Amino acid sequence: MKYCKNCAWFKPDEVTGNYPTCLEPSVQEESPVDGKPIPKFCNIQRSDYSISLCGPDATLFTERAPAEFNPETSKYRTLTDELESEQGARP
Asked: Where in the chain are the domains?
């Protein structure tokens, strides 16, 4: 199944977590009031409604590139990493 959370156009809702939006260019519209993009919610875009462009089959889905792991910026460190940083580099 193609989940919106795995799509390159997915933007999570950083305030409540309940209203993620779709940033796919073909679904974007400008507000006539201020010119800012009008949010297009993922649940509406994936529905059977006539206004949805993606639909249940996820026709606009683009696979998100996998994130590369960077041990320097990761908050998950191994016990070995912690010991090495406390004792200095091993010879």
From this structure: 1-64
User: pTM, whole model, 2 decimals?
Assistant: 0.65
Is residue 10 within 8 A of residue 64, CB to CB? The reply is yes
pLDDT along the chain (91 residues), means of 10: 93 89 91 91 88 89 82 64 64 53
CA–CA distances in Å: residue 86 to residues 22, 30, 70, 79, 81: 45, 53, 20, 11, 9
Pairing of strands 21-22, 10-11: antiparallel
CA distance 34 to 26: 20
